[in-house]
Amino acid sequence: MAINILESQDSNRYFGEAPIRKIPGQNPYVYHKTATVEDGETNHTEFGYCFVGRTSSGIYVLLTSDRGGGSGVFRNLLLVTFEYDQSIKCDWEKGIVQPDAKRLLIKKCGEIPLGDRWDGELKVNGNSVLVGKDTGWFTVSGGTGGDWMSYDRKDRALQINLDR
Length: 164
Description:
Layout: E1 2-4, H1 5-8, E2 20-21, E3 29-38, E4 41-54, E5 60-67, E6 74-91, E7 96-116, E8 122-125, E9 128-131, H2 137-141, H3 148-152, E10 156-159
Antiparallel strand pairs: 1-7, 2-3, 3-4, 4-5, 5-6, 6-7, 8-9, 9-10
């Protein structure tokens, strides 16, 4: 998946307010929140992200948070790149397709699930991402649920080896 950053500015396709929540000791959290009412019940959804860092090889690491309306708040690492290329234009009269304006693309490389309400240290060092042990709701409350990382209780390092 790729999105042209230059042409998405001031367009209706990606229109909407993006509030920013400041978190002490971290990069800002940018999010979009909605509320819908169905059968008299208000359903709140939220999706947001926080910049973690950039690997030596140019992969940007974002922490995403997705709350779909239930009790879960699913956290993932989203890996993206940015690159320039060119759009195309079609001249039907001449019967040719040729390069047009330069565009800046954000491309999704993939996602790494951290689990429901995961919370811990994240740090990029070279081409490694330190994923600290989960200190989130399931580990603190002793509750049941969460993901395997809630019970693993280890710091882990992921080596990001994506040939681009």
